[in-house]
Automatic annotation (TrEMBL):
Protein name: Metallo-beta-lactamase domain-containing protein
Entry-linked InterPro entries: Competence_DNA_uptake, RibonucZ/Hydroxyglut_hydro
Length: 433
């Protein structure tokens, strides 16, 4: 890993690891916003023009999706829409199964697919998850696509990365979410319902089996994709009849409950792909922990697999307090990556990250209460251990002061004006004349 670029996509995420041979690994690319506030440019253009061109000349491009939410995924579709073969390798998240072998995220998404036919952000997100492997393979080719789950590994720039989460089997879904899926299935369990109800349940189970097989970790093949596509078409053909069943209004009521929607969103976040580099010797500048939108419970589950310290920690869920983990108190990190922005449903950056003894690299200061109260970057008080003359305040960094073109840490925030330093306030760090 030669450098890291954290692209400003507002309330979203796009982290790019650059290799020594001009290759890149892009982890997530998406946003909840329509435009970038620093220049007003539409984010679809930021992706399809700026990001596309920035890495177009890379010798090889790999993409890894942590989970299927718009703020991590939408830009990926923009890139494939412009150039279907843009990525040489694509890693997609496996859909985990509970202790009974049931893929509850997929089951829930299929209920939404059938019973909520209006095209809303909620329903579109579910459909995107069901067609994730199919759509990606159709654009890029099945040979480029692979599912990732705990225990898998991949290589980038000569470094092996191990996937720590999610486990494919015995996944600990929350009681709230598991209960909602069970409630949905009970609605269609009566033996007095027409045959279409039993057919849907059978096709649902077959689809989940085929999807999980496609995401097993081996390269996809055309047969696996065709099976998923065929099953989803057959389920779609049943939708009109299923929506006329007596339980259909109750199913829609369950799906539309705010608590159910939140439980599903939280379950998708919690199943984010979490990975880090495999150490072959001692700690190094390659030590990085990538977290997607993983939940605090995730870090409890993988605590014994984490290193005591990392060079870079990517904060989960845009640095919000809801996904702060007490485990982070026990970890050391020299640099934090925080990708966030102005979004009315997004949370503020947690004070714990502001207090964390590391250099913060934030794409946006709007959700930071420290910045709003002080008017300046918290990074001005951070100690950087990468400077040539030894540890010092980050404002002593020649790149921060505008004296060099490269940062000692090799970590950059990228926006409308190109690369910038860890300071988010655009105030001068150079001494007055």
């Amino acid at each position: 890993m030669e450098y890291v670029e954290l692209y400003n996509v507002e309330y979203g995420e796009c982290v790019v690891l650059g290799g020594a041979h001009h290759d890149i690994l892009m982890v997530d690319c998406g946003s909840m916003n329509r435009s970038r506030k620093e220049d007003g440019r539409e984010l679809t253009l930021c992706v399809s023009e700026e990001i596309f061109e920035r890495y177009r000349k890379a010798s090889s491009r790999t993409f890894l999706l942590s989970h299927c939410h718009r703020d991590h995924l939408s830009g990926f579709w923009n890139l494939l829409g412009k150039e279907p073969k843009y990525f040489n390798q694509i890693y997609l998240p496996a859909s985990p199964c509970d202790r009974n072998g049931r893929a509850l995220l997929l089951e829930f998404a299929l209920f939404v697919f059938v019973f909520l036919r209006d095209q809303t952000d909620y329903s579109r997100a579910n459909i995107a998850s069901l067609r994730l492997f199919e759509r990606t393979a159709r654009a890029s080719g099945p040979e480029t696509v692979r599912g990732l789950g705990a225990g898998d590994s991949f290589v980038f720039d000569g470094v092996t990365y191990d996937v720590l989460w999610p486990p494919r089997e015995d996944y600990p879904f929350s009681d709230l979410f598991a209960g909602a899926v069970e409630e949905l299935n009970i609605e269609l369990s009566s033996p007095f319902l027409p045959e279409c109800a039993r057919t849907f349940q059978a096709l649902k189970n077959e689809f989940c089996r085929a999807y999980c097989q496609a995401a097993s970790g081996a390269p996809l093949n055309a047969q696996a994709i065709a099976e998923c596509t065929s099953l989803l078409v057959r389920i779609d053909e049943l939708a009109a009849e299923l929506n006329l069943l007596p339980p259909a209004p109750d199913i829609r009521e369950i799906l539309n409950r705010p608590v159910t929607r939140t439980a599903y969103a939280d379950a998708l976040n919690a199943a984010s792909v979490v990975f880090h580099n495999r150490r072959t010797q001692e700690a190094s500048l390659n030590d990085i922990l990538m977290t997607g939108d993983a939940a605090p419970e995730t870090f409890d589950a993988i605590a014994d697999k984490l290193y005591a310290g990392y060079y870079i920690l990517k904060t989960p869920h845009h640095g919000t307090a809801s996904h702060w983990s007490h485990i982070f108190f026990e970890l050391s990190a020299e640099h934090l990556l925080i990708s966030s922005g102005g979004y009315d449903k997004g949370g503020k950056i947690a004070q714990e990250y502001v207090d964390f003894p590391a250099v913060k690299h934030c794409t946006n200061s709007e959700p930071c209460q420290w910045f709003q109260g002080s008017g300046c970057s918290c990074g001005r008080m951070a100690i950087c251990y990468d400077l040539e003359d030894g540890p010092a305040l980050s404002i002593k960094c020649p790149f921060v002061r505008g004296e060099t073109q490269e940062a000692a840490c090799r970590i950059y925030v990228v926006g409308s004006s190109g690369r910038r330093s860890c300071l988010c306030d655009n105030l001068s760090a150079a001494p007055p004349l």
